[in-house]
Amino acid sequence: MIRRQLTNCTGLFFRHIMTAPAAKPFTVLVEGNIGSGKTTFLEHFQQFEDITLLTEPVEEWRNLNGWNLLDLMYKDPAKWAMTFQAYVSLTMLEMHRRTTKTPVKLMERSIFSARYCFVEHMKRSGTLHPAQYSVLNEWFDFIDNEVPVDADLIVYLKTTPSIVYERIKKRARSEEQCVPLSYIVELHKLHEDWLINRTHAECPAPVLVIDADLDLSQITEEYKKSEHQILRKAVNVVMQSPNKLSPKKPVRGSPIKIEPIRL
Fold first, then answer.
1. What is the Cα 147 distance to its own chain's centre?
2. Which end of the chain has less Cβ packing within 10 Å, N or C?
């Protein structure tokens, strides 16, 4: 029964995509806090051959002509935040513009979360000088207004800051060992205000919210149990959105929430 539901849902999903104007891929942005399980979520959908997965270009940030910009930014943000975020914007824009041979593209994060969450936090915390922030903001506004950056759906992996903080410590990524819980809490609030409360910045696409607090050792199995629900909800969110034909308009509709099925 579940397999039949998944097949029907996937068929509806792809029929909608293939009847959309032009031959652009249906682009899903997978957003969430540090340690929210974005890579795990994307890896689960490797089983669908009509989906291209683009993971966050962390290795590029770790090695730009031998320089680890991620490490430099965490160790001395006052000096390196501007440089790091400028490079993040470049690499994320390249991901947005990358052509695919499949009708669906799943991206880990986006140029929008880079601006609305991470650059915004750096501005509010004083890490960025107002002049540096203005430069980054001007670049973002130019890209948003002049460069086609498509977003058809946002999947928000909603997590509790204390849970992802423990995940970060367990995965022991060397650059992240100095990240305090307060930083995770602040990023969580920015994601919530952007994607849930809609009190900070425009939302470029309808939002599907998934409870991602489960232990990462269990969450892949939960995604497998819930994949038909995820796809069906994704179809409903997009098809019911009044903005689906005008992606540059801010999305006003409320997010739709689902939780993995416990069988």
1. 19
2. N
Residue 170 counted as an annotated binding residue: yes
- In a domain, residue 25? The reply is no
- Residues contacting 53, CB < 8 A, separation 6+: 42, 43, 45, 46, 106, 108
Residue 158 labeled ligand binder: no
In-domain check, residue 248: yes
Type of residue found at 81:
A
Identified catalytic residue from 31, 56, 108, 186: 108
SS3 157: strand
32 is in an annotated binding site: yes
How far apart CA 192 and CA 198 sit, in angstroms, is: 8
Task: Summarize pLDDT for 170-208 with one digit per residue, the tens.
Answer: 876 776 777 899 999 999 999 999 999 999 888 999 898
d(C-alpha 220, C-alpha 146), whole Å:
38
Please give the Cα distance from 253 to 213 (Å, whole number). 24
Has 167 been labeled as part of a binding site?
yes
In the numeric block, which tokens belong to residue 70?
Answer: 């991620």
Active site (annotated) includes residue 94: no
4 is in an annotated binding site: no
d(CA 145, CA 111): 13
CA dist list (Å): 262 to 74, 195, 214, 232, 258 = 38, 26, 11, 17, 12
Q: In this predicted model, what pLDDT tens digit does every residue of 77-135 receive, in sequence order?
A: 999 999 999 999 999 999 999 988 888 889 999 999 999 999 999 999 999 999 999 99
Instruction: Name the 3-class secondary structure at 230.
Output: helix
Structure token digits, residue 150:
């498509």
What is the domain range of residue 40?
Answer: 30-258
* Domains in the chain, number: 1
